[in-house]
């Protein structure tokens, strides 16, 4: 692995754990076993390295758990989308870094936030909207579509943002331990019920 790749991998580990602001260039170089000047040499700035790390984390997630399915019914595409979003969240390896990066960036926004939203999050959101629009039909207005989109995102994102609390409660047997498949099935069934109910009311 090249020195540049080592820096990206080390930075991904630190950024996903500590966030952009709480991670120093010195820490990244130490983790990568590189000279303190290496970040500037390969990336020009910490911000550019951060963008590279987002691309790295996104690719790892997409390669193992792609969320955009070609073909199939709307229901199949929705299940595929939600299932692999949940799989990303529960993945303990490199493919699970992307949800952690999102969580850190949302709770402690960097100056890169808008670029990251436009490059990585909006395409995913637009794909989900296309499924929702197809299920709801032509009578659905943009606000109704948006509310359903945010409802679905909120359901699976909960398992990312509540990770530390959830894991503690599971160890203490305060809550039952759910598998990714069980969580997926619940979110899909709940979301489809809401979408179908909305379509029925729109068509009255």
Number of separate helices:
10
**Percent of residues in beta strands?**
under 5%
The structure class reads: mainly alpha
Let me know the number of strands: 0
Number of domains: 1
Helix content: over 70%
CATH architecture: Orthogonal Bundle
| Weakly predicted, low-confidence segments | none
Distance N to C terminus: 61 Å
Averaged pLDDT = 94
What is the CATH superfamily classification? Answer: Tetracycline Repressor, domain 2
Radius of gyration from the alpha-carbon trace, in angstroms: 19 Å
Q: Biggest sheet, open or closed, and with what strands and sense?
A: none
CATH topology: Tetracycline Repressor, domain 2
N-to-C order of helices and strands: HHHHHHHHHH
Basic shape = globular
CATH class: Mainly Alpha
Helices and strands, with pairings:
Layout: H1 3-18, H2 25-32, H3 38-43, H4 46-64, H5 74-90, H6 97-107, H7 113-136, H8 142-161, H9 163-171, H10 180-202
Helix pairs in contact: 1-2, 1-4, 1-6, 5-7, 5-8, 5-10, 7-8, 8-10
State the gist of this model:
This protein has ten helices and no strands. With 204 residues, it is an all-alpha fold. The chain has one domain (3-202): Tetracycline Repressor, domain 2 (Orthogonal Bundle), CATH 1.10.357.10.
Task: Describe this entry's structure for a reader.
The model has no long low-confidence stretch (mean pLDDT 94). Helices cover 75% and strands 0% of the residues. The protein has 204 residues and is mainly α. The protein is built from ten helices and no strands. It is globular. α1 packs across α2 (25-32), α1 packs across α4 (46-64) and α5 (74-90) packs antiparallel against α10 (180-202). The longest helix is centred in the middle third of the chain and has 24 residues, at 113-136. It has one domain (3-202): Tetracycline Repressor, domain 2 (Orthogonal Bundle), CATH 1.10.357.
């Amino acid at each position: 692995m090249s020195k540049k790749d080592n820096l990206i991998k080390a930075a991904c580990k630190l950024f996903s754990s500590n966030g952009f602001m709480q991670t120093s260039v010195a820490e990244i170089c130490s983790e990568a076993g590189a000279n303190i000047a290496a970040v500037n040499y390969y990336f020009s700035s910490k911000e550019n390295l951060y963008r590279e790390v987002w691309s790295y984390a996104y690719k790892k997630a997409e390669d193992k758990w792609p969320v955009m399915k070609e073909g199939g019914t709307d229901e199949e595409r929705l299940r595929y989308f939600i299932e692999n979003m949940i799989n990303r969240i529960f993945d303990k390896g490199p493919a699970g870094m992307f949800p952690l990066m999102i969580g850190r960036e949302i709770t402690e926004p960097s100056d890169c936030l808008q670029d990251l939203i436009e490059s990585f999050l909006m395409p995913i959101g637009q794909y989900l909207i296309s499924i929702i629009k197809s299920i709801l039909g032509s009578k659905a207005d943009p606000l109704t579509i948006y509310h359903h989109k945010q409802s679905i995102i909120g359901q699976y994102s909960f398992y990312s943002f509540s990770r530390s609390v959830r894991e503690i409660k599971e160890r203490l047997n305060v809550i039952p331990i759910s598998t990714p498949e069980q969580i997926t099935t619940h979110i899909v069934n709940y979301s489809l019920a809401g979408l179908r109910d909305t379509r029925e009311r729109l068509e009255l």
